Amino acid sequence: MDSEQLQSVCSAAEDSCTTVEDYLEKPNDRAARLRALRDAKRLVTELQDKDDALFAPIEHGIAAYALRFMMSIGAFQKIPKTGSITAAQLAADVGSEKSLIGMAFSKSAQATVVVVRIHLTIPLVRIMRILIAAGVFEEVQQDEYKHTRHSISLLEPGYGEFFEIMVDDLFYTWSRLPEYFESHRLESPSSPTHNPRSWSYGMEGHDWATVVARTPEKLEKFNIAMSGKWSAAPVIGTYPFETELSSLSAAVVKQDRVFLVDIGGGQGRAMKELREAYPALKGKTVIQDLARVVDNIPSGLLPPGLDIHHQVHDFWAPQPIRNAGVYYMKRILHDWPDDQCKKLLGHVVDAMGPDSRLLIADTVIPDRVQREDLYCYWMDMTMLTFAGKERSEADWRDLFESVGLDLVKVWKESVGTFNTIEGRLKRN
C-alpha cells in the first residue's frame, strides 16, 4: 500500500471515528446512524486490496443463497430464539444425514472410556461456516450455533418472506438480464406487461401483479412480505402536516369536504399514525383500496374517533371523491412506468379542486450518488425488472407537468431518499 492509499485509510478511519462517536451520543437519530454506517463502509473499502474487492460481492451473494437454502430445508427455523443448538442436533431436526466414522475403546483400572468420533458429512455444517463468517449467525463453540439480533429479525412477520422473494424471484430475473437484452432493445423497460420479470417467467403479456400471483403460495408469501414493518415507510417527519395543512383542514370541515384521501392506502396504519400524531387536523379521512384489502382489515384497527373510513376503489378507475383537501399516495407510483402513472395521476387531477394538494410519499433519487442510504438504488434495480422506477426530482417534475400539476416542493429527509413530493393544479 503506497503513501496515498495509507492517507486514504487514515482519512476514512478519522471520519468513521467522528461519525460513530456522534451516533453513540444520539443512538436514536437515524441520520447519525446512516452517516456512521456510510463512513464505516468507506473504511472497509479503503482497507480492501484488489482481491478483497473482487471477492466481497461474491461472498455476499453466496451468503444470501446459503441463508435461503437454510430456510428452504427448515434449518433456519429450527435454531432456537434463545440459547444455542449443536450441528448434530440441528442436522437431526431437519433430517440431514450424519455418519459415525469411528469408535475407539480404551480401558483402565479406574473406568471405561468410550471415545466416539462423529463426523458430520452434511452440507449444513459447511453452509453455516459462510453464514457465521458473514455475521448472520454466531458460533458459540465449534459446531454450535445461535441467532444474532440480525438473523432473529428474519423470524418477524414479513422479513423472512421478503428475503425469500428477493432471492427466489428477483435474483433469478437479474441473472437473466444479459439473456433478456440479447433479444430486446437495450433500454429501460417501459411496458408493465413486457419486461424482464414477465419474460423470465414465460409470462409476457402479464403485469407484475399477475406474475406475483402465479401460484396461491407465491401470492400469500408476497402479501405477508409486504405487511412487514420493513415496508412501513414513515409518515411522521416526512412532511410538516400540522403547519402546512391546519388552515386547509379547517376549510374542508367548514365546507363539508373530505380532508384526505389515501389512495391505495391498504389497511390504514399510516393514516392511523397520522391522525393520532396530529389530532388538531380535523375532517374525514378516506382510505381507498381493492376489496380484497378492505375486506380483510383487522377488527378494531381503526378507532372510530379518528374519523377514518374505507372505500373500495381501484385507482385505475376515475377518482370518486372530488375536491378533497389532500390526495395522498405512498409508494404507489414507483411500481409503474410513466404512461401508467400519467393515467393514475390524471384521475386525481380530474378530481382535485383549486386548493387541493397532492402529496406523494416516495423515493427521490439524488442527483449525485450518495452512500448513506442504498435502499433507493437496489429498489430501483428491482423496479427495472417490471418497468417501474425510482424517480429523481427532475423525473417527478416532468411527470407532474405532463398531467397539469406544478411541483411545489420536495420535502426532504436530512439523510435518506424517502421524501414527500407536493403538487398542486397549475394556475391558468
TrEMBL record:
GO biological process per UniProt: methylation
Ranges of residues in domain O-methyltransferase C-terminal: 259-404
UniProt KW Isomerase keyword: no
UniProt keyword Transferase present: yes
Superkingdom of the source species: Eukaryota
GO molecular function, one term: O-methyltransferase activity
Keywords per UniProt: Methyltransferase, S-adenosyl-L-methionine, Transferase
Transmembrane regions listed in the UniProt entry: none
Stated name of the protein: O-methyltransferase C-terminal domain-containing protein
Organism: Lepraria neglecta
Classification lineage: Eukaryota, Fungi, Dikarya, Ascomycota, Pezizomycotina
